[in-house]
Amino acid sequence: MHNTLKNTVEKYIQNNSSLTVAVSGGVDSVTLSVFLSNKINCYRLNVAHAISSAVPREATQRVKSLAKKYNWNLHILNAGELQDPKYISNPINRCYYCKTNLYSSISKTIPGQIFSGANLDDLKDFRPGLEAAKNSSVIHPFIEAKMDKKAVRKLAMNLGLSAISELPSSPCLSSRIQTGINITSDLLKKIDEVEIKIRNIIPNSDVRCRWLKKGVVIEFNEPNIDKLENIYKSQIISFTGKTFELSKEFISIKKYKKGSAFIGKKEGVTNG
């Protein structure tokens, strides 16, 4: 599997003067970047990370730390999605506008081929961002190497990235906002603040703070919700209410449900 990935990447390196990995800070894009650093002559490797209120602060901190460790040529960009009215309106294909802005920003800043960390499992979901990637001629090495999420996590372990390999999937913070509700920087910052506070109380929690028309829903992926003691629930509801200036009847804690902030007609649509 690793040889297949290496052959896939080398094929593009031979035909390009430089390459750039679009790194979100999640397990896929980080693992791809470290693989390139360790396995291939990467004097031409650029790593691009977009910062905005939609990107969790923990992800940006992780990317900056890894860039120092692996000597990446890190480019911090503002992709400008929060200045795009189509993105702000939060339609079902919001991710298309996000990725379009991202890849456009990378192309204007850094010449050469763009790589993404998309894996085979992403093809099973509704992923408008993949259409944006196609329009920008972005390459997905994991997909070409037939690697799914499980294989990427295994590769991360083999590269000595045990903590990274266990990171839960974490789409951008805009995915927490119900479809059709306008995205604002203030709202995104509050969502990020609540999720950080929860992980400070319960380390490594796979948690989503959802902003829905009916109020705020804090979702925990199993097995975290089963370990949630009443004292934690009380604390979470209290500081969530203060953050959003809501009374507790508009705040609930539930088991994680994929796509619960999504409202749309497309069959099979999911949103983290």
**Strand pairing plus helix content: what structural class?**
alpha/beta
Helix run count = 11
What low-confidence regions span 5 or more consecutive residues with pLDDT below 50? Answer: 265-271
Which word captures the global form? globular
C-alpha Rg (nearest Å): 19 Å
- The count of β-strands is 7
Average pLDDT over all residues = 90
Overall structural domain count: 2
At CATH level 2, the architecture of the largest domain is: 3-Layer(aba) Sandwich
The percentage of residues in β strands lies in: 5-15%
Q: What is the succession of H and E elements?
A: HEHEHEHHEHHHHHEEHE
Q: Could you name the CATH topology of the largest domain?
A: Rossmann fold
How would you characterize the largest beta sheet? 4 strands, parallel
CATH class of the largest domain: Alpha Beta
Name given to the CATH homologous superfamily of the largest domain: HUPs
Describe the structure.
The protein has a four-stranded parallel β-sheet with strand order 3-2-1-4, with helices on both faces. A three-stranded mixed β-sheet has the order 5-6-7. It starts with a helix and ends in a 17-residue tail after the last strand. The protein has eleven helices and seven strands. Helix 3 links the parallel strand 2 (45-50) and strand 3 (73-77). The longest helix has 17 residues, at 185-201. Helix 2 (27-39) crosses helix 8, helix 5 (94-109) runs parallel beside helix 6 and helix 10 runs antiparallel to helix 11 (230-244). By secondary structure, it is of the alpha/beta class. It has two domains: 2-165, 3-Layer(aba) Sandwich (Rossmann fold), CATH 3.40.50.620; 173-255, 2-Layer Sandwich (Alpha-Beta Plaits). It has helices spanning 2-13, 27-39, 57-70, 85-88, 94-109, 128-135, 141-144, 149-158, 162-165, 185-201, 230-244, and strands spanning 19-22, 45-50, 73-77, 113-115, 207-212, 215-220, 251-255. Mean pLDDT is 90; it is low at 265-271. Helix content is 43%, strand content 13%.
